[in-house]
Write the structure tokens for this entry.
Amino acid sequence: MVFNSLDFFIFLPIVFMLYWAIFVKNLKSQNIFLLITSYVFYSWWDWRFLSLILLSTIVDYIVGLKIDFNTKKSVRKLWLWVSVLFNVGLLAFFKYFNFFVDSWLDMFSLFGYSIKSSWTLKVILPVGISFYTFQTMSYSFDIYYKKLKPTKDFLSFAAYVSFFPQLVAGPIERASNLLDQILHKRSFDYAQCSGGLKLILWGLFKKVAIADSLAPIVDDVFGNYSSYPASTLILGVTLFSFQVYGDFSGYSDIAIGTAKLFGIELRSNFKFPNFSRNVAEYWQRWHVSLSTWFRHYVYIPLGGSRVSKLKSVRNIIIIFLVSGFWHGANWTFIFWGAFHALAYIPVFLMGRNTIYKNSVVGGNSYFPSFKEIGQILLTFGIVTCSRIFFRSESISNAFGFIKRIIFDFSFEIYQHPMGYRMIDYYVLIILFIFYEYRIRKDERAPFKFKSKIIRFIIYTLIVFLLILFYDDTVDRSFIYFQF
């Protein structure tokens, strides 16, 4: 079930009304209902993979209790490894098995040996496995590091693991935030629900009007890159930057908004990354839950930046390579991660990786300074270049794409593959950029205007654009479902 489907728009109101009309009476009934609806939501894709979620839930529930019960460090660490090996093992089999086999066979072929790929299996990637395995592992890590006490309420823990708004594509929640709320009774809050509906509307706009409308253009350019000049390739990868941002941040907004309807606050996952002034700030604003996860559970245990500069650089490289590999079983993602590591390291060595941590571009002014505009364009350009690897189907395609950009100096006016007017998309993107700059201080309040008339006009315009750019021929699934 996807957020931008008719199924979900029938499912959500029914669940919402039952939740507050019937199951609001006590905490246990609330959590049991959340658990059941979450399993129904997930089984809409393939009910067989519910067993993996349940198994991951049981393993980390037991691991949490065992780590807390034992005082001996070696025993605690042994139980932590049970969690890590089990969850990483799930990922390794379902997500990376064929990648490792194919890479092994390719290595042999370099030495002239030809081996049939009989070991390769047609393994189906369970939706959301990269997200819920990391979420359950974080629970075990937090108990091991004594930042959290385990719960003995299995049903509540299961609801935490499978909470349907963020189950399949995040945000990756930590138990200290989400589980803590699930363990406490929720009551209906009109302002919270109103804020949730506004976020859902804004997320749908980013998904349908931005991401889905740009998808045919991006698919055409990347699918036929060898036939297009550099001008078209640059346009295609630039539009892909807006597509993937609209798609993933749109999902996060809908997830956060949906959670609000049930009295639960999820952490922000996107904080206007397109206005970042360097690559370090970009990673403080893009996919925040994943960046935070890697920082807390990989980067800091490796020594973080508290070790020598050389070891810190090593840690940065490890983090970005692992992050790339997390995104998918393809060398393109590893190159993407390496690209970001190379872009991040100079910022780190110059000591500029935290200078924008607690500030927003432009401050209180209506427009950013010329210096900030230059910084934003440079950062956006670097990030967009990296997405050539992210979007390409293979390394050879990625380098072929880059080669044409560098050596093909011809220019042509791109025509939409379906014959639509391209000017409409350019105007839409420009208006989107200006509007996001206007609301850049609060990612949870996309319609924060004092005037009711202005709000009404914006709501009407958003609905109009949703209808105008909606295309039922486009694949409406979210890009990050494949991860």
